[in-house]
Design brief:
- There is one protein chain.
- Helix 1 (2-25) packs across helix 4.
- Strand 13 and strand 14 form a beta hairpin.
- It contains six helices and 47 strands.
- The radius of gyration is 27 Å and the shape is globular.
- It has two domains: 1-100, Phage tail protein beta-alpha-beta fold; 227-759, Maltoporin, Chain A, CATH 2.40.170.
- It is 9% helix and 55% strand.
- It is mainly beta and 760 residues long.
- The two termini are 52 Å apart.
- The longest helix has 24 residues, at 2-25.
- It has a 22-stranded antiparallel beta barrel. Strands 6-7-8-15-16-11-12 form a seven-stranded mixed beta sheet.
């Protein structure tokens, strides 16, 4: 006891000396708390978890390097308005002292480096990718945010695209994709092969499989939320990058001590050169489409593809208690080619565009109350112009979505353990579909609107020792058009026990009014054949989900073992939204699907090496009462999926190697020996067979170096599908001239990419 008192006195004296030296003699320069934290992370091999905007203006003298970790944390507490809690072997939590409560809800890290550095498991049950602290993943050198989320167990893409991400067996249109709280109806460039969200301006990505906040609606399968930087930078910084697909730039521009502007832009380089990566991508998206195969009398030429994206974030700290933020994003894909006969040539084209803007205003009224207003407008348009030379016909198709959202919420700190979140949310969604033929004249224009009112409330509890976290609440929704009332409870509970163990219970009810359907497989030139539609609460029901999960984790000495079992049921899906290419391709009916599964991961960190193995099991089945087969495996049922990866990280070099394997998606085959009946294909039981196992090995390397004192550079190389394995990702059959043709769509072949980036 005496020794502890002496040590405490010593620390107080040491703190006083530092204070006197820094204020009186200026012999030791003050540093920002974030700089000190970064140095301590390297010194003690630990991680700090904190809200960056909370510590932004804090500057103190650096602690002596002779102090132990506990002594350093005590010193920091005496020099700042924060508490520093050593949560486990390598994690320190930074929280405001009780007399200086933060109104921001801090999602504390439960497991740091869940897969690699920069990927964390949070106390609310979600996962976070911190782009600024991100390490490297196999096959990725320029952090593609929607490719990166596929590294989590339970997240697959049945066709390797970011526009078809399946969260625990759900369809992509059942994912809520947010960019700075704006709902996005488009997610990919190159019609799905790369993310349309520029990683240079995207600071954080969160993935929620279950147990989402009551303030969120839509996304019955899961939520992927991206955020830009929330702090004001007082120094200009920027970057320029070039890879085998695009050229890109980013700038963070301080406008004053209260305001800063971030801008980012990317554009494909196909106007200047066509790299092997570009050619592989183009070949992949055009498989079995009109772009690749036309009729015998028509030849395609002059194929051109282009994409770009621009994004902007302006933030203004009006004063210590008020903040205004404006966001804008604009993205586009365009494909043009010429259809030729001996006598005539005509252009066909496909264009995809998203444009969105948002306003965020926050005011802290006092130490207990904060109000936030969020509003956005998001617009999506898909347009194709299909020239049919032989029939002298032009077929124009359009699919448009226009959505307006207004949200007002209030946060109330009841005490330092309990916070209440409540609010109101209004959403108006308009979907328009156009089919226009010039010969013979035919025009069908359908435009529908659905308005939804939501009221939500949620209580958040954190125990004093930060070992127990609970978020529980209820959302009430009223859909005007159908006079429909929907109640949605949400739950997220985590508890750490025996120092290294944690248990997690998650649950949620959700609904959504929009889905993507396929009328015909050759719509929109067969490239992006899905179009958005609104529910009519009849043959196109409001989709509703129920989920529950239970997880257990062990985290000690660089080891992580985590397993989570879950149950999920989605009601109100339609056959058109599931992409059937068998006997149910043109059937229109509704039903549901039910999933039982488990996600497992084991990870070991050892000095500069990090190795992980994840496994997912899924039993995913449809139920359509009006179909002859009422129950059968889902089109997204990948029963077994396994990922293995290893990373090496030094001061300047990062290396990563990984393997992805799964048991193949379901397929339906014709009955052997009795393939054709009445000029139709006679199929075996639906989805009773599986494609061959999928196997892909990826590798990536990234080297950092200095060009000058203020300029850094990155040089990286990656190889996707290193073994050049021909994976079949889709299989279906077509009847032509009384003969059955089997069609296999294949994955991306071996594809290299190189990046060079300058940061200044």
């Amino acid at each position: 006891m005496v020794k502890q008192i002496k040590r405490y006195i010593f620390i107080l004296l040491l703190s006083l000396i530092f204070s006197l030296e820094s204020s009186g003699q200026e012999t030791q320069k003050k540093l920002s708390l974030s700089e000190i934290i970064s140095a301590l992370e390297s010194q003690f091999k630990i991680r700090f978890n904190y809200a960056e905007d909370a510590i932004f203006e804090t500057e103190i003298a650096a602690p002596s390097k002779d102090l132990s970790l506990k002594e350093v944390l005590m010193y920091l507490e005496n020099q700042t308005n924060f508490e520093f809690i050593l949560a486990n072997d390598n994690m320190v939590l930074i929280i405001s002292k009780p007399n200086n409560l933060e109104l921001q809800k801090l999602s504390e890290v439960l497991v740091s480096g869940y897969i690699v550095k920069g990927i964390n498991k949070l106390s609310n049950g979600s996962f976070e990718i911190d782009i600024s602290d991100f390490d490297i993943l196999p096959g990725l050198i320029d952090t593609d945010v929607l490719q990166a989320v596929q590294s989590f167990p339970g997240i697959q893409s049945i066709d390797e695209t970011v526009s078809n991400i399946n969260i625990r067996g759900g369809a992509h249109d059942q994912n809520l994709i947010l960019w700075d709280n704006i709902k996005m109806y488009q997610s990919g460039h190159f019609f799905g092969l790369i993310s349309m969200f520029n990683p240079q301006i995207t600071q954080r990505v969160s993935l929620t499989k279950n147990g989402s906040s009551t303030e969120l609606t839509d996304g019955v399968s899961g939520t992927i939320s991206m955020e830009t930087e929330k702090d004001i930078n007082d120094k200009f910084k920027g970057s320029l990058g070039l890879n085998f697909i695009d050229a890109n730039g980013f700038a963070d521009i301080p406008l004053s001590d209260k305001s800063s502007l971030q801008v980012a832009a990317r554009k494909s380089i196909s106007d200047f050169t066509e790299t092997p990566t570009y050619n592989n991508y183009f070949e992949r998206i055009s498989q079995d489409t009109e772009v690749e195969n036309n009729t015998m009398n028509i030849a395609n030429s002059d194929k051109q593809f282009d994409f770009y994206d621009t994004s902007l974030r302006w933030i203004y700290k009006i004063n210590d208690k008020e903040e205004l933020r404006v966001n804008f994003i604009n993205t586009a894909n365009e494909l043009i080619f010429t259809e030729n006969t001996i006598d005539e040539s005509r252009n066909s084209s496909l264009k995809q565009n998203s444009i969105a803007g948002a306003v965020y205003y926050s005011k802290i009224w006092n130490s207990k109350w904060q109000t936030i207003f969020e509003g956005y407008e998001t617009d999506y348009k898909l347009r194709s112009n299909n020239a049919n030379i032989l029939d002298a016909q032009r077929f124009l198709q359009e699919n448009k979505v226009s959505e307006t959202s207004l949200k007002l919420k209030a946060k109330h700190n009841i005490n330092d353990k309990i916070q209440l979140l409540s609010g109101y949310h209004f959403v108006e969604t308009q979907v328009t579909n156009l089919d226009d033929v010039d010969n013979p004249l035919f025009r069908l224009l359908v435009s529908e609107v659905v308005r939804t009112h939501g009221v939500f409330s949620q209580i958040n509890f954190k125990s004093k020792d930060r070992n127990t976290n609970l978020s529980s609440g209820l959302r009430y929704n009223y859909i005007e058009k159908f006079s429909k009332h929907i109640l949605e409870p949400r739950l997220s509970f985590t508890h750490k026990f025996l120092q290294h163990f944690s248990v997690e219970v998650l649950g949620e009810f959700k609904h959504q009014n929009t889905s993507q359907i396929i009328n015909f497989q050759n719509d929109f030139l067969g490239i992006e054949k899905r179009r958005w539609q609104l529910s009519n609460d009849d043959d196109i029901p409001v989709i509703q989900s129920r989920q529950g999960s239970l997880g257990l984790s062990f985290n000690k000495s660089g080891w992580l073992l985590s397993a989570e079992g879950y149950y999920k049921k989605i009601k109100g899906i339609t056959t058109q939204s599931q992409g059937f290419q068998n006997q149910y391709e043109f059937i229109k009916t509704d039903g549901d699907y039910e999933i039982k599964g488990i996600d497992f991961i084991i990870r070991k960190q050892l000095r500069d090496f990090n190795t992980w193995l994840s496994y997912s099991y899924m039993d995913n089945n449809y139920s359509f009462e009006s179909l002859p087969e009422q129950t059968f495996p889902s089109n997204f049922d990948i029963t077994h999926a396994l990922t293995f990866g290893t990373n090496y990280t030094s001061e300047h070099l990062k290396l990563s190697l990984g393997l992805n394997w799964n048991s193949g998606r379901p397929k339906t085959i014709p009955e052997p020996g009795n393939e054709i009946i009445n000029n139709n294909i006679n199929y075996n039981p639906t989805n009773a067979e599986q494609l061959q196992d999928y196997l892909r090995v990826d590798v990536s390397a990234l080297y950092d170096f200095k060009l000058s004192k203020t300029t850094k550079a990155n040089l990286g190389i990656s190889v996707w599908n290193l073994l050049d394995k021909e994976n079949v990702i889709n299989n279906f059959y077509r009847l032509n001239d009384d003969a059955i043709n089997e069609i296999n769509q294949r994955s991306l072949r071996i594809t290299p990419n190189v990046i060079f980036r300058v940061n200044f």
